[in-house]
Design brief:
Blueprint: H1 4-12, H2 16-44, H3 48-60
């Protein structure tokens, strides 16, 4: 297995175009993992409290859009 320091050294030595491509790929990967985590949290019910808070605010007339 390649060590983190080896990966970091390889990244530092990339040409600018390859580095930009890697950054774009990493960003997309990060967002996809974030989306997967949100989906898992929603499926498990971990985010239900947000719906409850919004419903409560709506009933109290204090719900506002940003």
């Amino acid at each position: 297995m390649t060590s983190i320091s080896d990966i970091q050294a390889s990244i530092r030595s990339l040409p600018a175009d390859d580095y930009a491509e890697l950054r774009a790929w990493m960003s997309e990967l990060d967002w996809n993992r974030w989306d997967d985590q949100i989906d898992a949290d929603a499926t498990s019910g971990s985010l239900d409290f947000l719906i409850d808070e919004a419903d409560s605010s709506k009933q109290q007339g204090s719900l506002s859009a940003l």
